[in-house]
Fold each of these.
Amino acid sequence: MYFKNRFVSYLVSGSFLLSVVSCTKKLDTNLNNPNSITTNAISGKDVFPNALQNTVYAINANAFIYSSASAIPVQTTVGISTLTNEWMGIWARTTSYSASGTQYQVEVFVLNNGFGDNFWGSIYHNLSDYNFVASKSATGSILPGAAIVMKALLFQDLVDIFGDIPYSQALSGTITTPVYDKATAIYADLPLQLDSAMALINASQATADDAADILFKGNKADWLAFANTIKLRVLLRQVPNAATAAALQAEVSKTASYGYLTAGVDATINPGYKDATSQQSPFWATFGFQVGGTTNPYQPNTFYIANQTIIDYLSAVSDPRLGYLYKAAPAGGYAGNYLGDADNAKQVSALSTIGAGILKSPSMSGVIMTASEGLFLQAEAAQRGLISGNYLSLFNQAVAESFRYLGVPNDAAAAAAYISTSTDDRVNPAAAADPIKTIIYQKWVANAETDGLEIWSDYRRTGYPDRSNPSVNPAASVNVIPKRLLYPLSETAQNTANYNGQNQKNSDIYTKIFWGR
């Protein structure tokens, strides 16, 4: 069963739990009336696989609505990944489609408070799933610790998008109007939550529940490395504004022995995706083709094409990944549109769509975090002195892992040659006055199309990549990428007093998150 995106409350509803078990063999417990299954008949292992799939949909496959009668996605709102991929020069609109509704808002940077509804509701619902797993899984299982890791990842995402959010009361089970916690306080607590999760994972034993782990298959070492990588990401966000580097270094050192994501270890899920109705991989089912071939694409496949910004960059630095990130145009060569292009100067036959290194197959795994992203985080942390290790070596590995993920032949050798022969400071750290610039530019390419949110966060805290004049839409009078989204419209009705206490204004889209520039 795939995620059907809809707004929900902060609590896990009985109807949702029933929708989850419809994907499991729990229905066999009452063949006469499966709807009579009670919450007590459900355990964490029944919810965890679907929760992981929902995470992939919300973050990576975007916020598209799937009707119950069809597996074809209908675009009713722009997902967080499509939004950020467009803002960060990765994707643009095919000019055969007009800019209207939410797409128009994306291109002119005029966002209302209905824009974030879908993502807000999706993530809080997903958080409720993980909260259930953490409290309703077998003692000693790896699942409680793993669920806390996923909660930390999602809460970080929410803070990075909205700032102050409901946190301490959001998953209480009894409070329906939770207070908004300060973003700084949440960021201070997330490392503690991750430390607790790592302790639980480290103490866990192999159980039958491990079969529900479609991410790391119950592998403790991988879960510990992944959790520690998320913790490192939380700490790195705060570097420009931290009072002292010593405090961050001390926090890093607490769990240094668990390591981080390494070469070849992507955080991806795959419960058995295949080219069948409602069983395609999330990204393929959103941006790929309908069941049975490559002649009938889903609408987003023809809506989103390459942004000319990244085509210009990849061409300028002779990046071998160009043909893997994007498909050559039918007329030959690689070309896209800039964000906000209003005319149809380029025919569809001249435009590049999503490449085979990203849109792999109906059975491709769903991405939560690649090894490349984890290694870029380590490279930056080493360069800043937060962790030990040679940042150049980590950087080289990160680029090589990007080549590997995209399917570039002889990935390690090709990546090494690409870096060493370049004199561009966005490719070769040896040519850079600021190594952070090189790291973030290469991380931008590595995360292109798979993690737009991370790219947007990197830009907001470092200023890289350059996004001056990001839109060519003449209606973009304030041609600056927003720093956050507004709280969703649903909060005005469901959590009125706490929402009003935030005193939000439309101009707050340009109020930085506390860790930003």
Amino acid sequence: MAERQPYDPTKLEANCRERWRQDRAFVPSPETSGTTNSFVYSCTPFTTGNAHMGHVRSYTIADACARRARSQGDSVLWAMGFDAFGLPNEIAAIEHSIAPRDWVDACKRRMIEQFDRLGLSVDWSRCFDTSEPEYYRWTQWVFLRFLERDLVYRAEGIENWCDSCQCVLAALQVSDEGLCWRCRNPVTLACVPQWYFRILPYAAELERGLDSLSGWDDTVLACQRALFGKTSGAELVLELPSGQPLSVFLAYPQALSKAAFIALSPNHSYVEQLVSKSQIAANLGAQRLRSLDRGERSLQRVQVVDSGLKLQVPGLIHHLPLIITPAVDMRFGGGAVLGVPALDATDAAIAEHLGLAAWSSEAEDHQADLTPACRYRLRDNSISRQRSWGAPIPIIHCEVCGQVPVPDADLPVRLPDTLIPTGEGNALARHPTFAHCNCPRCGGRARRDTDTLDVHFDSIWMLVPFCVPPQARVKSMFTHPELRRWLPVAQVVCGADQAGWWMNDRLFFRVMRDCGYFKDLKDSEPVRKLLMHEMVLSDGRKMSKSLGNAVDPDDLVHRFGADAVRLSVLKVNPRKSFNWTEEALRENYQFLSDLWNFTHEFVVARTSAADDNVACDPSLRKLARCSAAAQRKGSAAFESRSFHLVQKELKLLFDAIRRTWIEIERAHIPGIAEAIAVQDAISIVLDLLEPLAPHISSELNTKLNRRVIPASTTSAAIHRGPGKEAIGDKVSNISLTRTSIGHQ
């Protein structure tokens, strides 16, 4: 008898991966009638260095979804790309004194190697990164389609500005202390020409569409609704001293007589006319950097700037003071509202700050002309950045023709191959050849736009290229028939910090629908199910290199194996944060070792199974019930993406299997019927385990020589005892996978 090999995850996992690679196991099968097509997607990683534990959790969850779908007979597309543009990549390239392209390529190779060691069942043949000219050509094409529909526009705007990085920053890139997330220098405000993404034309449709997304986690839907911040009310038009009309929103139309002031957002276009530049610098800087959270405990901290103006409000006798406050942004977007202190706690705090009484005004005889309206907290997003490592904006500025789109035939507008960022401003603007060109309309001398697109614009259409075979992307990116096969996405997995981004993806597919694409996509919704997982913690804090509490996934895989790491990150409900410890790793390593050892011992023991049949005893009937329960509950847990519950059920079943086999061996030499019953139960354990820990499951299935055999063979081997239900009948009702136990 050959000596049993100890559990060695390093060796067996490498063997599995090589076999999968040679078999091209994760390339989607050709489309066939009757087969369900399942596209699994997890938000793509940034090429900012090595993979971290947040990546491990996210992609292990997605991989479990993909493997489970395959086990159910689906044809699965599970691919991965890389977010490779943006300031982090540019800064990293500068710090390492290499070109950004070289940095991105090195990160991709490293991270692919790490993800491969985790056993991710990714079709790497469909991999791409957003900094490839073949990709950003289509990003520029999408920009031009938005431009044609007036959904992107250029305007002067007050934006967060980092002098050190010489770049506009998104709100998420500014810390609570008003510091740049990257260099930690103070963020100021600058009035700069920017390209903006117009959202409001689709806001009502997008907000209504949330009601149809039954497969999305409630937390994601709540995040989306909060992002829209819809408020129903009414509006009326006032007149400024300059004669300009000012549209004002009233959230309480029935309480016009209780209005005490008019409030403008610090980002309202009229602010520059109403207050001096010195007031803006002294008082509005902090307001524009961040808006007031309505849930803030201390409403006395509400910031207010008095414009010194009072305006007549139709329907009221009193003129109301016009003030500026960020409280408007958090509720109604960058507009103007009537404050009603009697009905709103924030308005009451503002009125107290201004020394205003919350009076009820005497209404005049005529009624105000109120028009039903709603407001969204959404604001148009800045999508241009003053950095060189990004998709060039495909616009040419001509003194004669103005803003001229680059013709589609001339795309992509490529980044110069010789471009080396220095961190001192935008290298594109200083490049000797990039900026200067001829106008495509008049042929005269012109200048390219030297801003680049923000990485969020790169990613709004990232679902598309995964669906298109790589060789077809050049010509058929938005028309290839496989788009109909894979969209909408069956399952999206994203982190808690990415839940808000999906509004832009949903918007993209609606805009493309109106451009004549994706018309077969029901309700224009690109995602059927969306799971948002929480973060990995260490010592109660977010695991982060900057906090010095990160762990190295490579080290964990080296010491415990990928399967043990996967089980450990799946041990906690994905919708909850979990505090990382090695205790879970050690427990799961021990479980896998026990499973490995028991299965090998069982395979040896079954070769000696007696040919005579032993009547079914209570322990086998109990095992059958345990098997049925594990399969039923495990399947339900997979459906709800509760992988921690899948683990619970398969481990309970494994304990029952071991107890049953020990009882049988103590009583007598196991018979064929008993060996079949036990092996069928082991098969259920492996079927439930395979999406979670695929390497050991694959090896043990091979060891068990699992193959389908006629049900009648099993039924004949297990007979009915006197006055007892046949265990064969009981097992057949569980739909177990039938396996051969032929002597080896």
Amino acid sequence: MRRLTVSSFVLLLACVVCGAAFAADRPQKNVLMLHSFGRDFKPWSEYAKVVRNELNRQSPWPVNIIEHSLLSALHGDENPEGSFVGYLRALFAREPPDIVLSMGAPAAGFVQRHRQQLFANTPMVFTAVEQRRVQRSILTENDTVVAVAHDFPAIVDNILRILPDTKTIAMVIGASPNERFWLGEMRRELAPYTHRVSFEWYNDRAFPEILKQAAESPAHMAIYWHSLNVDAAGVVHESETSLSKLYAVANAPIFTFDGSFFGQEIVGGPMHSVLKLGQATAAVVVRILGGEKAGDITTPASGFAPPIYDWRQLQRWGISETRLPPGSEIRFREPTIWQRHFWTMVAIFAALAVQSALIIALFWEDRRRRRSEANAQVLMGGLAHTNRIATAGQLTASIAHEIRQPLASIASFSSAGLNWLKRQPPNVEEVRSGLENIINQVHRVDDVIKSVNALFKNESTARTEVNLNTLVRQVLTSTARAVVSNGIVLETNFADNPSPYVMANPGQLQQVILNLITNAIEAMSASEHGARTLRIETSIDQTDSVVITVADSGPGFDAKTAGQLFQPFFTTKSSGMGLGLPICKSIIEAHGGHLTVASQAPSGAVFRVELPYHRHE
């Protein structure tokens, strides 16, 4: 034992030493991420999130991301930049970063203005920046650009394609230096469209005024959201709060150029893909950290991704999917009620179908019964038929009860299956078990329906020679699944010399035996007693009566309950109707027999069916 302990310690120490050596071979890389305004200013904040995640995923080295923000870019005041440059130089005086990553045009401009003062030989990557905002003439061999290319005409074309009646487009853009630059670019590029639509520019308005005008927007108007980092009143708007407030009051659909704003308020269209640009940026950074020279890496500016649309916004503004460009992707589509509750809907329609069939059958039988009663004085045979119809009416109520139980089970198993499918990962075994249970319940419903069909046919009143052994075995076949699933031990003892024959209606006797066996199974499944045993016997007694005995090991009942079991509407079940046993008793008595019940020691009940014996020739 002592040797094993020492060996384990030596092995653990070796692992620690190897791990330390491995970590030494893969030193940490320091990445300075410089934000244009702050960490929460869209769209750059979304690109930064993706870049951080992708660096941690793609980099073979540990990456330490150090983030700082160029707050002076909000108002275009370059005077404080000297102090910020001094701060960064002091911060990285001993150990400069391995690479500088600027997010957005303001950060790119700052880095290019102070390249020599900051990190003259440090590789730099300019990303999340439009290609027009980078001064390529002063890029050094240590600089590379991962840029995007805006296409404002494509955005207007998209609006006019899906909303051809548009007459006005409200252009929401702020008043920061970066936003003023894009104001001029958009005015120039969209000038050819002024003969089709009019443009309202919101750059000279405070945000409360923008909200007021958006709420009062006229018909056939669309809103283009560019950015609102600083409004005309000088108020800074961080994160997506301003867009959310605009959406809450806007009386027109909202469009944009960047996918970072997509997901709640935006209708959609061609936009920049945050994920693709973030992945491309991280890949370039990893290549530079791996030894490649930044100036040797050339990345073409990425244009708009294939158009995507928000299904919820299409519904809100009544935009037909047929107007969308070919190859468009629709997201956030809400599943139909059939997709969300498939098995529940199947169960509901199955229940309605069965209920409709029963109602039709009842109406039909009621019509025949009334006609028989009218002719009872003339045709004595109508009396038997009337009695038959009354029995069928009682039996139908019992069958409805029998069907309701498996349908409820189907709905329960279906709901459970959907919940298991929603798990991550889905629990396939539980779903398979639920589907098997549903199939079992469907078979049970099918057996009951077959009995209904046989019962309601005119010829079903005819009695034929029936071998009770064969009849009981047929019923046991249909209940075999329930017996096994409830852990019940089945014991049978069939008289076969001579075989027990009776003259009876097979469908009615099957229903009686099925009812007794089902009651026994349910009684034992609800019981907390240990062993569950179901014993079924057929025999011929000394009085030439054929006897069927159904005995269970359930909780049984007291003497008072035994005297009420065959009374209509008395039941010991929470969901029972109290018609099953009275109908069984009436069927047996109509065949000239008797149905009795007694308690069984130490627990359980014994049902005894006696019928006149028919000698088989």
Amino acid sequence: MPKKLVIVESPAKAKTLEKFLGKEFSVKACGGHVRDLPPNRIGVNVEKDFAPAYQPIKGKKKIIDILKADSKKASAIFLAPDPDREGEAIAWHLSELLGSEEKTKRIEFNEITKEAVQSAIKHPRKIDMHRVDAQQARRILDRLVGYKLSPLLWKKVRKGLSAGRVQSVAVRLISDREAAIDAFKPEEYWTIMSSLTKGDEAQSFPAKLVLKKDKKFRIHNEKEAKKIVGDLDKAEFKVSKVTRKERKRNPAPPFITSSLQQDASRKLGFTAKKTMMLAQKLYEGVELPQEGAVGLITYMRTDSFRIAKEALAEARSFIAERFGEKYFPKEARHYKKKKQAQDAHEAIRPTSVRRTPDVVAGALSDDELKLYTLIWNRFVATQMASAILDMTSVDISAGEYTLRATGSIIKFDGFITLYVESEEERQKKEDDEEEGEGRILPELFENDVLKKLAIIPEQHFTEPPPRFTEASLVKELEQRGIGRPSTYAPIMSTIIDRGYVEKDGRALKPTDLGRMINGLLVEHFPVIMDFKFTAHMEDDLDEIVAGNLGWVETLKEFYDPFKKNLDKAQVEMKKIKKEIKTDKICPKCGKHLIIRSGRFGDFLACSGYPKCKHTENLKKEEHKEVEGQTCDVCGRPLVVKHSRFGTFLACSGYPKCKFTKPILKKIGVKCPMDGGDIVLRRTKTKRIFYSCGNYPKCKFSLWDKPLNEKCPKCGSLLVEKKTKTKSQKKCSDKTCDYTAEL
């Protein structure tokens, strides 16, 4: 009897589905996209309504042939790629290749559990062409931008550069922030704290100067600060107002794609790419000892806070059993839909709260378990009772000034017993009354006279805006409506891999190349680089999904002005190619030869190009020899070489010896182990670290930037430790607790 064929994207998902569906089904994996635009040409006919020339992806012929053979034998074909636009497009491409429309149906499931999969089989549908059209529109938009802008950059700057529609806007955000940091001029200001007591010095508490003549004010310099300190020294400190109130703190909503990436970055140190890779594995299914293969979380590309009724009921039942009635709210919590949310899928949650992190720990890697625990804790916390805090605020008069002391204690921990929000999330919701959390103030009443123990003026300087991290950039993109859940992680990877952005710790910093390319694109393509326009294009894609807009119409609206700007830029964009001039003369026209970079490395070319197209191979003597540095393999001198990937050191014996190494930047600090120069290096993921230049003979290394100072306590190197608000000196020896302000 012919089997029913189910086609999914990944082998892991296929394995999980096989267990649920039984012997009458055959489950095969297509490995993602099977057709795409050609890799070596634009593949879009602009003149014929942007008709795409799809072709099978290289390396997919074997799997396509297998799927075609299986589909001919099958009694029914269920296409089950991921439940999003990309998955819908994959399903459509499969149906086009298999050519069995009459027996082909589309199914989707938000979670890979037995109930969800069997329900999907019972309720198949036709392929949603509106979703397919939206995906096609995005793909063609990106192809047009990439294949039209990239050659322009090759011509004007250098070979190997590329530009992308959304990625270039992300680079602009990072470059604009860096420009704001460069232009920032710190302003001096002072704060004044006092240490007060009602009687017993052991019960002293801090109070901050907040008002002058009942109005907020700023202390600009030391002179003003000293005058105020003098006034306070003479003043009587008396309690003028005591406010006590009970405050509820509600849990944050369940994770959506952007908040998961942000929290995984803040709490676990994961990149957006790593977070989504791990989440995909948890979604597709893992092998549990008692259950076999099962998906642990719902679909991880979503912008909705919606939760299924069954999941809410299970969570509430679990909370009552595990934590007790007082942690169990009377009604289930529901969270408001975000303005721009497509709301196509549920929030990210465990497929069953009964699969606690302890239950699944043995089946997961360390990183998978960390992410699953984060998702599980956050979801269960959303349905727990609010935390209750006792808040106390005390205003203290001192002449014409008012100081304020705050304190708060957790009266009932509620959801906090399971999940504590990151500081950044809480700052969005709470005011400064919670500055004193955990501080217990003594019993104070109006007109109480207080004893002054100390008045402490402190100088500060305003800080420039912080550089973006992956977490804060995802948040910024989401707030501006740029990109969608499925695009955040690829954006991060692309801008770093292209060399337009680098990581300094967790901070994202534009490279010189990134800033230069950004400047050119902003000048000549202001519409494409406009944040509102990019967000508008995302809205148009949503309208295509809704059936309110045609994809060809959308592409025409974009392409016509883009083409005009492109033609104009071909003429007006300045050529800023950095070419290395040599003393050699062209034998054909007498002009100087220059070093150029091509697909196959460096070569000599006539500076009279394109009129004169003479080229020569680049001999070793044409490269600058590096004094004193020799090849680690054969001992020959090293030379500086230039390629489309940048400048590097190579053996002068090339091609017999192919040894290369990067040019390392010294930071002016000596290695404490062997006296070598400490240099800046990067990991494979572009993360910066510092190590001895004599590696591998000396393996001294640090993540934080070393300072040319030694710790006064233990003699180890001091390092620069940056936080969100300040920079500190810290001892590099983890067993030493020395810190000081920079």
